[in-house]
Automatic annotation (TrEMBL):
Name of protein: DML1/Misato tubulin domain-containing protein
Membership in a protein family: Belongs to the misato family.
InterPro entries: DML1/Misato, DML1/Misato_tubulin, Misato_II_tubulin-like, Tubulin/FtsZ_GTPase_sf
Main location as per UniProt: mitochondrion
Gene3D superfamilies xrefs: Tubulin/FtsZ, GTPase domain (3.40.50.1440)
Annotated ranges, domain Misato Segment II tubulin-like: 2-60
Record organism: Oryza glumipatula
GO CC terms: mitochondrion
Keyword Mitochondrion (UniProt): yes
Transmembrane segments: none
GO biological process terms on file: mitochondrion organization
């Protein structure tokens, strides 16, 4: 067994994580469903890579084996009240409260409960009446699926509102703090109170240690962080401890952001400088403690390509996070492919590799702490005129494309699986009318304007590519330049901001030097500008 442990830190990271685990939950259900598409029933994907087994007492005195994700989730108490499915299938209410200091005293404020939405109510109903989820007629359900979709499209306020996965209690950790306004938790320095509280950092370490020690042979840690604000500081401290405690364990870092935080024309000069410094400091710190960083989100998800097929409302985190999660799911498929014989390898999957092997392929000439470009096709275009493609056809098509290139990558690796991305019910209606039930691109439905979701589409073929290439150069240059201009240069007005965030002159210079080193491999004279795919 080569398990992978997943860590999610921050609000949008957990939005992404909820979708990611919903995909995995759907795959588990389809594999056991006798009426499901046979493509979900092959043994190519080893789901135990991401899951653990546990015993629980539910409804009877008998023990049932239940699987839980190998994952640790970190978020802030200021997420108001949420509902989570935890150990034993119980719906657990987590009340919102925050603490703030006033006149030397601590006051606790409690909100009105944030009740279950229709989707969460339906999960409770399923648990009480299992027949409603096993072929029961619609008349036996108190809520129609269409009503659930409408509810999710219009009333998702938190990442817990659409999570259908049962988490182990050790997975969940809430940060404690003295914030009175979550909007102020928006820069690297705003988390000083958390990262200086060693008890909280140690508690997070213990949650991770619980899952790592349960692994027979851990292949790596995949870490999803919302790096748009204070959570990037929390994640950097967490990653530093991981680097110290698990020296030989590869760490693959996905950085995600709510599209609504990417830019604002309303910022004044000081706010713009703080945002530029946050991006630079966050990038420097996070990249220092991982083996590979993958920025996910616009523009890295190639919106220009997907705009013909997807309708994403940026103001809804429920939408954008679904695409990010689909990309992460696609990237992680090779880590879960079964190591089988040649004949079955060609039939159901090809090109299995673990996290360490992926890093080795992308670490051209032994470079470390890299940033890699991500390309995603959702859906992937058909290679056979709308019919399902075989593994050998995928391999032949990709190889022919590379052969036709004038500039070929130094190293490349292709992984493929017949299993498409399942579209679970709690998935946003983001597909345009020209997408068919199995993700095929329809030429005669281009004029349909009503977005499609899980009621119309069962699965989507996906293609994802990681590239170690000069495509990431502008991303690094922008952050390196910001730190030099606003933090290092003599008289830089951002130096006071960095000082308020707890950084001395020497540490700022060290961060700038680290960013300069990340730029080094892309200089033409070093001959490292070719892709590794």
């Amino acid at each position: 067994m080569r398990e992978a442990v997943t860590v999610q830190v921050g609000g949008f990271a957990n939005y992404v994580g909820s979708h990611f685990w919903n995909f995995q939950d759907e795959l588990l259900g389809l594999a056991d469903d006798p009426d499901a598409d046979p493509v979900f029933k092959n043994d190519a994907l080893d789901m135990d890579v991401l899951y653990r087994s546990g015993e629980t007492h539910q409804h009877t005195m008998l023990d049932f084996t239940r699987v839980y994700p190998h994952t640790a989730l970190v978020w802030c108490r200021l997420v108001l009240e949420c509902w989570l499915r935890v150990h034993g299938g119980i719906i657990c209410r987590v009340p919102w409260f925050f603490e703030f200091i006033r006149s030397g005293s601590v006051t606790r404020s409690v909100s009105k409960p944030h009740g279950r939405n229709l989707f969460l109510q339906s999960l409770v109903e399923e648990g009480q009446n299992p027949s409603t989820s096993n072929g029961a007629s619609n008349s036996q359900k108190s809520v129609e699926d269409k009503d659930l979709i409408d509810c999710l499209e219009n009333s998702v306020n938190f990442w817990t509102d659409y999570s259908k996965v049962q988490y182990h209690p050790q997975s969940l950790y809430e940060l404690h703090g003295s914030w009175t306004d979550f909007d102020k938790f928006d820069n690297y320095g705003s988390a000083q109170e958390v990262v200086s509280d060693w008890s909280q950092i140690e508690e997070m370490n213990e949650r991770l240690r619980f899952f790592v020690e349960e692994c027979d042979h851990i292949q790596g840690i995949q870490f999803i962080v919302d790096d748009s604000g204070g959570f990037s500081s929390v994640a950097a401290q967490f990653l530093e401890n991981i680097a110290d405690d698990y020296t030989n364990t590869p760490v693959l870092l996905y950085c995600v952001r709510d599209p609504m935080t990417l830019g604002s024309s309303r910022r004044n000069q000081r706010e713009s400088i703080m945002r530029a410094l946050h991006d630079a400091v966050s990038f420097s710190k996070l990249s220092s403690f991982c083996n590979l960083m993958v920025p996910i989100g616009p523009p890295s998800l190639s919106r220009s390509y997907m705009s013909s097929y997807l309708y994403i409302q940026d103001e809804k985190p429920f939408h954008a996070s679904a695409v990010c999660a689909a990309a992460i799911h696609s990237i992680t498929v090779p880590f879960r492919l079964q190591r089988t014989g040649p004949s079955s390898d060609l039939a159901h999957s090809s090109g299995n590799l673990d996290i360490g092997e992926l890093l080795h392929i992308l670490s051209d000439q032994g470079r470390q702490n890299m940033v890699t470009a991500l390309d995603v096709a959702m859906p992937a275009p058909s290679l056979t005129g709308g019919q399902r493609t075989s593994i050998s056809q995928v391999k032949d098509s990709v190889c022919s494309v590379y052969e036709a290139r004038e500039t070929k990558p130094k190293f490349s690796h292709l992984s493929a699986s017949l299993c498409p991305l399942p579209v679970p019910l709690p998935f946003p209606s983001i597909f345009r009318g020209n997408i068919g039930r199995h993700g095929e691109i329809l030429s005669d439905h281009a004029e349909e304007s009503q977005p499609k979701g899980s009621l119309d589409i069962e699965s989507i073929p996906m293609a994802a590519r990681l590239r170690s290439s000069s495509a990431v150069l502008p991303f690094i240059e922008r952050r390196s330049g910001s730190l030099q201009k606003h933090g290092v240069a003599r008289g830089a007005i951002g130096s006071l901001v960095l000082r308020d965030w707890g950084f001395g002159r020497e540490e700022v210079e060290d961060m700038a030097e680290h960013l300069a080193k990340l730029l080094g491999p892309f200089h033409p004279e070093m001959d490292l500008t070719s892709d590794s795919d």
